[in-house]
Specification:
With 633 residues, the protein is mainly beta. It is 6% helix and 55% strand. A hairpin with a 4-residue loop joins strand 14 and strand 15.
Length: 633
């Protein structure tokens, strides 16, 4: 679609917004930040955001609707302190870093279902749709005393609940973008008697920016609830994602296909008795990832040099959680997780390997004005990586004479268990070796921060952190030239994050943030470079939402990924070295207009048309446009 067509669409949106002022509905008038009214499940119980001692950020449904995003990975790219290494095209598995940590150190969950794979320890966040998300809770730092293996942070996605009305509510969205891209999504919710329901499905296909660079995605999500009256309610959910993802052609004359299938769900019961809330959940996930390399000319598999790789990961988890309300405001949380995870691989494992873990945990919040004291303790017993004890202690001080201002401090003992594959994977032809002596990474994490709305229209947040990591993991090469993962002596990760939000007008907000991360190998005293961990990152943007339903979201983000130069061999077997091209800011724009039952939107990605890559083989697409319409009832 030509640029002039998109300019015309923008004009129509503006004009219709003026004509339909009396019919338009509100789509997100700027509201003041009130921390006490933002509830999160940081300690596996609902608490106010002002009551947590860690650096936590929440993205609610209203904010999600304002973003030009199609999946979880794209949503997270707009979150301060969360860095998504940009990849070419749709569906690529992006690396997620929180304040400079490794992506495998970030625990990613959907409704508390763990999704980090035992093949790499990472999560492909592009798998999960944005349409069924109610909110996202991001813990920027250790959360081992609550969630276990999470040295770098936690991302917990809370999906939309079942409906509450007999007359169903729903929406249909259709959008079109360049690269022969189209997406359709549908959702429906309601309640019939004691049974509530929520359904969502989406379909996306794109031809990609170049040859062999295409994707076909199918996603669905279902949630059902049954009201047991005084005995609580039963909730079941099931998610499904299936995709064929191709990488585009590489300089060596090959292209890669990486289809995946992911299923996840849980069946649970929740109830309240006197001063105690109880949750019992059986969770499950199944991930299948296949990687095939093809010859670009013949489209045949070069199986001798690059055989097909398959990984299958199956997780079952039983979780029990109780929350007791003491002294009206104090909270005591007790619970336990029981996991069994099985990994299969056709290339790297001679037979399936399983890992089992049991983990009781407890945390207590004591409120003595103007102080909140939060203590936590978790004991993880892992069949492959031993025992881990994770205590934490934090405090929040609410300044009495300063409006909406607080100071946070937290210290915790954290760990991160390596993926099971690193202990057992072996393939002489693929130059990989196992390490039967590999151990979990451990560390002490220190956090200090402040948050203030000293002036009515200005909100600031400052967070400092330091992680002293022992038994840190990095790749090494043995005497036979095979690559394996090894525990090194010690790493130190430290840095700071500063956020600022200014309400310029009633409907207009300006926001900016900056983060600096320093990672040092304490044995060599050298700064660690690359690996999907940015050294600096900056964000800035504006957001406008008026009462007539018009919205504008502009966001710019800058990440210095600090990657080494990429070295590759072209088809002439010549060695070529290319530096990263990432020291520039990328801008995305979303313009929308909402009416009574219709919403129009226009997204412009890479607004400045910048040439950008952290990895030379995975450049960000040049500027492209997407437009669509949503019908609601």
């Amino acid at each position: 679609m030509k640029f002039a067509t998109f300019v015309l669409i923008i004009t129509i949106i503006f004009v219709l917004g003026k004509i339909n002022k009396t019919e338009a509905t509100e789509t997100g008038e700027a509201l003041p930040i009130e921390l006490d009214k933002i509830m999160i499940t940081n300690k596996r119980s609902s608490v106010g955001l002002s009551e947590v001692s860690e650096n936590v950020e929440v993205i609610n449904e209203e904010e999600l609707n304002s973003l030009p995003s199609r999946n979880l990975g794209e949503v997270l790219s707009y979150v301060s302190g969360v860095d998504i290494q940009p990849n070419q095209g749709f569906g690529r598995p992006p690396q997620v870093s929180i304040l400079g940590c490794d992506s495998r150190q970030v625990r990613v969950m959907i409704d508390g279902i763990p999704l980090n794979s035992q093949s790499s320890g990472q999560v492909n966040t592009a798998v999960f749709p944005a349409e069924n998300i109610s909110r996202i809770e991001v813990i920027k730092g250790s959360a081992s005393s609550t969630w276990g293996s999470s040295l770098g942070g936690v991302i917990n996605v809370i999906t939309k609940d079942t409906g509450t009305t007999f007359v169903p509510k729903g929406s249909i969205t259709t959008s079109f973008a360049e690269f022969r891209t189209k997406k359709e999504s549908f959702d429906l919710s309601g309640k019939a008697g004691d049974v509530g329901y929520y359904f969502m499905s989406s379909y996306l296909e794109s031809g990609g920016e170049g040859p062999r660079d295409d994707v076909l995605e199918k996603k669905a999500f279902t949630k059902l609830s049954y009201d047991l009256k005084e005995e609580g309610r039963i909730i079941g959910s099931f998610g499904y994602s299936d995709a064929d993802v191709n990488s585009g052609e590489y300089p060596d004359g090959t292209w890669r296909a990486q289809p995946y299938r992911v299923l996840y769900g849980k069946l649970g019961w929740e109830g309240s008795f006197e001063n105690t809330d109880i949750n019992l959940d059986l969770k499950h996930s199944r991930q299948e990832i296949i990687t095939r390399f093809y010859d670009s000319v013949s489209d045949e598999l070069p199986s001798a040099a690059l055989p097909t790789s398959e990984f299958k990961d199956r997780l079952y988890q039983l979780s029990l959680n109780t929350t007791s309300h003491l002294r009206e405001k104090d909270l005591l949380v007790l619970g336990a997780d029981f996991d069994r995870d099985t990994l299969q691989s056709n290339l790297y494992l001679s037979k399936a390997k399983s890992i089992e873990s049991q983990a009781p945990y407890a945390n207590y919040t004591l409120k003595i004005k103007p102080w909140d004291f939060i203590a936590g303790l978790r004991y993880d017993r892992n069949s492959e990586f031993g025992e881990q004890l994770s205590p934490s202690f934090g405090t929040v001080y609410h300044l009495v004479n300063v409006p909406e201002t607080l100071i946070r401090a937290n210290i915790s003992r954290a760990f991160n268990a390596p993926p099971l594959a690193w202990k057992y994977n072996y393939n002489e032809d693929m130059w990989t070796a196992p390490n039967p002596d590999i151990k979990a990474e451990r560390g002490w994490v220190y956090e200090l921060g402040s948050e203030s709305k000293l002036f009515p229209n200005i909100w600031t947040k400052l967070s400092l952190y330091r992680s002293d990591i022992s038994d840190g993991l990095a790749s090494a090469v043995n005497e036979s030239g095979q690559v394996y993962m090894k525990n090194f002596e010690k790493f130190r990760r430290q840095g700071a994050e500063l956020q600022l939000k200014i309400n310029l007008l009633e409907d207009l907000d300006f926001f900016t943030s900056g983060a600096f991360n320093d990672i040092e190998d304490r044995a060599t005293r050298k700064t660690v470079r690359g690996g999907g961990r940015p050294r600096q990152s900056f964000d800035l943007g504006v957001e406008y939402n008026n009462k007539q339903g018009f919205g504008l979201f502009l966001r710019g983000y800058y990440n210095r990924w600090n990657e080494e130069a990429a070295v590759y061999y072209n088809q002439l077997d010549e060695e070529v070295s290319v530096d990263s091209n990432d020291r520039k800011m990328l801008f995305d724009l979303k313009i929308s207009q909402g009416f009574k039952n219709i919403a129009l939107f226009l997204n412009i990605y890479n607004l400045t048309n910048s040439s950008y890559w952290a990895d030379y083989f995975l450049p960000v697409p040049k500027r492209y446009f997407e437009t669509g319409i949503t019908l609601k009832w």
